[in-house]
Design goal:
The protein has two helices and five strands, in the order E-E-E-E-H-H-E. It is an alpha+beta fold and 78 residues long. It has one domain. The two termini are 18 Å apart. The relative contact order is 0.23.
């Protein structure tokens, strides 16, 4: 279900008030997000298109809270 067990994906820094960096594994459909002050989380089953839209969103945090957080299983990894 989740990719990279115990191992961080390579993430890219983003401009956001709450999100530091975002990574994605297309093969495992795993999205990884580092949040300011609260750690790193992985989200399972995220389609690549959803990741692409997140990265292009004018407000990444708002997109995350609307389109990812309510819909995908997550776990804290760091």
């Amino acid at each position: 279900m989740f990719g990279h067990e115990g191992d961080d994906l390579e993430r890219r820094a983003v401009r956001s008030t709450n999100i530091v960096s975002v990574g994605y594994d297309a093969g495992m459909k795993t999205l990884e997000i580092e949040f300011k002050g609260s750690g790193v989380y992985q989200y399972a089953g995220v389609p690549q298109k959803r990741y692409e839209l997140l990265m292009k969103a004018p407000a990444i945090g708002s997109y995350f809270h609307r389109e990812i957080k309510p819909w995908y299983l997550c776990r804290k990894i760091g």
